[in-house]
């Protein structure tokens, strides 16, 4: 059975607190493990959350501020220490390639892992296959990219329709591959099955890319550093408020909104949920360290623009 869940390793912006580690998120997507923005302390949080280095197949950095990347040296060295047998692909803004190089070789160690660097120079797809991973440039004081994972659309077979057409066993797979079996078309015995969509949006002001990444996402993980009372601060420092994040989710047809990256100035997480709830009536998760968030099941009907 496939597993699609977000393992939250840390939720604090800028500095850790007594109750929040710096950023870190591991998306389990079937056989892939995508580690987003490993801040300081990520390796220990992985241990606490039951995430092994061998689970990681990709590392995606949105930008090179410390709270999103200073856990990278430990993670990279752990890949070699644990002799991870598969290639690990690393995506990051090309403008910060010198930072990545310094962190990759921050100290002496015996490098054994097959870590493949993929600097991002422009918006567009980064990887294709069972899903498409793409990046879009955000609006932050340093160059930053958000990420979107899109599963191809498919079809759900209808057993009763298959029986009516006398199709069973290996012929079902043949029909799925070829689209037609005799006079029976695939559309005659199946319904559309929209692929799942996951979006990861960290440090940014509101911009077109935020909406493009979020459009019809089943799960949107998005920074909400500030509350609406500090909107001017959010704009000055290149961040979002919980209110803005929730409006994006409402206007983009998001199903599950995961708020994270909280400023240490706020001590009551319920304020973030209350602010978001006033704008968005879907599922809201105010992320907590070491929490596991399940990606919602696939939609049962085709996606329309702005459909919740």
Q: What is the compact description of this entry?
A:
This protein has 308 residues and is of the alpha/beta class.
Number of strands: 18
Which class do the helix and strand fractions yield? alpha/beta
Let me know the largest β-sheet: 7 strands, mixed
Q: Radius of gyration from the CA trace?
A: 21 Å
Global outline: globular
Q: Could you spell the SSE succession in H and E letters?
A: EEEHEHEHEEEEEHHEEEEHEHHEHEE
Total of DSSP H or I helical runs spanning 4+ residues = 9
- Which regions contain 5 or more consecutive residues with pLDDT less than 50? none
Mean pLDDT: 95
What this model shows, in words?
This protein is 24% helix and 27% strand. By secondary structure, it is of the alpha/beta class. Helix 6 crosses helix 8 (242-252) and helix 8 packs across helix 9. The protein is globular. The model has no long low-confidence stretch (mean pLDDT 95).
Attribute tags:
alpha/beta, 308 residues, seven-stranded mixed β-sheet
Draw up the topology in text.
Layout: E1 4-10, E2 24-29, E3 32-36, H1 42-49, E4 58-60, H2 72-81, E5 88-93, H3 97-104, E6 115-120, E7 124-127, E8 132-137, E9 145-150, E10 154-157, H4 159-164, H5 170-178, E11 180-181, E12 184-185, E13 190-193, E14 197-201, H6 208-214, E15 219-223, H7 231-237, H8 242-252, E16 256-260, H9 270-277, E17 283-286, E18 292-294
Parallel strand pairs: 3-4, 4-5, 5-6, 14-15, 15-16, 16-17
Antiparallel strand pairs: 1-2, 1-18, 2-3, 7-8, 8-9, 9-14, 10-13, 11-12
Helix pairs in contact: 6-8, 8-9
